[in-house]
Amino acid sequence: MSSPEHVVVIGGGLAGAKTVEALRDQGFEGAVTLIAAESDLPYERPPLSKGFLAGSAPFEEAVVHPQEWYTEHSIHLRRGERVTAIDPGAHQVSVDDGSTIGYDKLVLATGSVPRTASLPWAAAHGVHQLRTRADAEQIRAEFGKGRRLVIIGGGWIGLEVAATARGAETAVSVIEPSELPLARAIGPEIAAVYAEVHRAHGVDLRTSTTAAEILTEDGRATGVKLTDGEVIDADAVVIGIGAVPVVDLAESAGLAVDNGVLVDAGLRTSDPDIYAVGDIANQQHPRLGRRVRVEHWATALNQPAVAVTNLLGGSAEYDELPYFFSDQYNLGMEFYGDISTAARVVIRGDLEAREFVAFWLDSDKHITAVMNVNVWDVIDAVKPLILAGRVVDPAKVADPDVDYASL
User: Where does the FAD/NAD(P)-binding domain start and stop, copy by copy (predicted)?
Assistant: First the structure.
């Protein structure tokens, strides 16, 4: 296969920035264009619900590369522009300024957007969702002593916003329809730890209930009415009920789409000249033997190098298992693996002290996932056991005196 002359990347987040970085790192000397809808330099999003939201970390720390880097590496970075259409037949994209750009290879890194809530007055003033720098700045402006914040949704984003808001002495209520927050992500045993830590920090955590309506006065949110009729007063509301992949361009271009853009193990779409990475990539995973779409930082960080290897004529598969991390109050954690086939959880350490490692085991006693909470240097030690599919003794897994390597 002849080497492409021009690679176009759509999406100004971490995945897009790492794609153009990988092109130069892997020796591509042709033209590279990166089109970013936001006017900011491409940046990482985890700080938006952590340090940047708290005001303790400047935005510049989230930026992947400074402007000079793009200039030095001959990357044509088009900020504040949106691609309106892809024409696979003509190998070109249309931009909202009326221009068209030809490509030999195209990489989609369009990410995801917050899921919208079908609630009355969800668009009122004082109702927020978190995806961009501007969103984080607007939410931060709602924090403070004497202020009341209601968060609809007890997932990772909702709980991280809750923790950050409490750090600014904001009164916080969280509304979660499940019996426990995060239960679907990490199971009830570990989810209970998060419920306890938030309540211990003064969060009014309402579980097994849902929001029926956002109440307003003069067009601004004043509270949330629950389905049982109870009203929780608020000065602001944050809706965090998940995200949906941005696939409109891919779909209108005729690419195979189903809960994201369908890609193979090498991140190729149904069009051999178009690849997809990051939040939108619904990948046929070579290790798990099924499709997975992962909305986490590590995917955006690591998938691009594989896609670039393949679009330059190589042969590579993305076989990393999901990894993510979260910081809430004085509770830090890392997670690696997949719990979809897990039959039990084994704990090493002290749940009540919130210093432990959780291991998910399937029915055949293989470790499928690990999560370390306020205990560090665990993932690298346990990862080989997960990838090798070793059968382990649950009693030894739980024993802190047994070295990980000997499991």
Answer: 6-303
